[in-house]
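Sorry, any thoughts here?
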Amino acid sequence: MKVETDVNKIESLLSRGVENVYPNKDFLKNLLKSGKRLTLYTGYDPTSPTLHIGHGITMLKLREFQNLGHRVIMLIGDFTGMIGDPTDKLATRKQLTREQVLENCKEYQKQAGSILNFEGENPVEIKYNSDWLSKMNFADIIELASHFTVQQMLERDMFQKRIEEEKPIFVHEFMYPMMQGYDSVAMDVDGEVGGNDQTFNMLAGRDLMAELKKKDKFVLTTKLLVDSSGKKMGKTSGNAVSLNQTPEDMFGKVMSWSDDMIVKGLEICTRMDMEEVKKMEKELKNGANPRDYKMVLAYEVVKTFLGQEAAEKGKDYFIKTFSKKEIPTEIPEFKPNKYDIVSVLVESKICKSTSEARQNIAQGGVKINDVKIEDIKMEVKEGDIIQKGSRFFVKIV
């Protein structure tokens, strides 16, 4: 397989949506310019049946490597998914069974197929880390653990917070970065790509590669998509945009993002030319209407993950329902004490009780900004329009 060394493409790969490169950008740039075919991967733990746009950000970066001719592996963490990644978690994750993780990842290739190419001359490979982790015996695990210290693990922010709050840290949670680190060794990769929140885990693999393989593994971290409060968009936060959503729902969810997410969203969640993105950023700073640019963002996001026809469909639906005011022109405003959707529905008297609120959500009768929600832990924010059925509306202030 011939590797492409186009300077402009390499520069874009190393800059667009990139938070950090370890050991440094020059190291990876020289590798990419050398013409050597690199092997790299990103791991996806099947903790849910659907991949979301946060996963899509790393897939877009993987596709850039694939387009240059490098060997890309999509690693399904069917073993680590049973442990549970403690990243950003102030409480221990509920552990999943083998059956649950296998059921969750059944549709991953199909969902990832809009970004990654699993066919042709240089197809993305799919691997499962149970192929090596499930074969390790206790002696193997002790040997692996000997390469890490307790102090090293306790450096993680979420563990420090748990200690401060006197919350438990379980030994199996220390095992997670060790296992993820061993993935790199087992596959003998040159590098790893992941969200910036995965830096600790990926650097654990970098340290392990240096010790066990005498190899300088690169780590490229991508920027995170966060809302205006700094909360990461994801499954746990309840604000994830799933890759298998309908065009209408995906378009509507993106339109509900805060204005300050427009430029970052265009950079890391779309393939729009960066010169055009920078031009739009300048126009926004000069007072342009953010709503018009958010329409562009929503269109480009749907186009990237679902295709142009889907983007047109999502846009048409949004214009029909919102721009043509097929919702009430005057919506009562409400300032909640708690911002989870169940509390909002009860406090605003849209629902009479918590159980009624949960039931309405489960039946698909509740929307936020015209997008049906399924997660009872979803949190609302200022400006959101909450709807139950066709008659009950409230705007969060």
Remarks:
- The mean pLDDT is 88.
- The domain at 328-397 is CATH 3.10.290.10 (Structural Genomics Hypothetical 15.5 Kd Protein In mrcA-pckA Intergenic Region; Chain A).
